[in-house]
Amino acid sequence: MIGQFLDFLGADLAHYWKIAAAVMPALLKGFVETLKLALVGILWGSFLGGTLGILRGQHIRVATPLIGAYLHLLRGTPFLVQLYVIYFVLPNTGYSWLQWDSQTAAFVSLGIYTSSYVTEIVSGAIRAIPRGQWEGAFALGFNRLKTLRLIILPQSIGLILPALGGVYVTLIKATSIVSVVGIVELMRQADISIVRFPGDILYIYFLAGALYFAFCFPVLMIVGRLEERSKNGRMVRA
């Protein structure tokens, strides 16, 4: 009985090893595409969201309601709809600078999608700093920009970083949606591999999930480490 079980287990392992060897090159190719999409989306979205978040945190009369409308529009609609608008609708406006290929549309969509969450995080962190910090800086002769750079933002980092980790992981998983505009990323490669091996759907999705985890887990660890360093820095200054 034990010998039969070991023979069965060995046959299964050989089968799974054969499937992994066959599909991994394609999955890794898709993983590289996912990595590129996510990194561009993180950088572009963080820059745009950070800028808008700082502006929104200043309670500027004209900018604040406009940025608020931008956030409600993006956070109130699915990412897939935003991607369709950017890739299919905007090119029909006739403006040449809106005639994007699928990859550019994916980069723009992911960046804008990410920026909507980063903006809220940054503006919320800035607003969480007591108003007395601003007033004290102004009393010392600091202007608004210097106060923001030297006093407000350093204290806000510890509030911003924990939330950014979740946003970045959400972005990484959202890259699977851009396959609808022709981007062959990780999940699209997994679907193509399933056509070749229809009897191993669960196993192929498991391999794809393992690659997603290999990307998401280090991102969370890096953000967590940066958060710890930020907390230690504040404790030392205190």
> What level of helicity do the residues show?
over 70%
Q: What is the radius of gyration computed over CA atoms, rounded to a whole number of angstroms?
A: 23 Å
- Predict the CATH topology: MetI-like fold
Chain-averaged pLDDT: 86
CATH architecture annotation name: Orthogonal Bundle
CATH first level: which class? Answer: Mainly Alpha
| Largest sheet, strands/sense/barrel | none
Oligomer: single chain
Order of helices and strands: HHHHHHHH
| Uncertain residue segments | 1-9
> What is the fourth-level CATH superfamily?
MetI-like
Strands, count: 0
| Separation, N- and C-terminal Cα atoms | 68 Å
**Shape call:** flat
Q: DSSP strand (E) fraction? A: under 5%
Commentary on this structure:
This protein has 238 residues and is mainly α. It has a single domain, classed as MetI-like fold (Orthogonal Bundle). It has 8 helices and no strands. Helix 1 runs antiparallel to helix 7. The chain is flat and about 75 Å long. The N terminus is likely disordered.
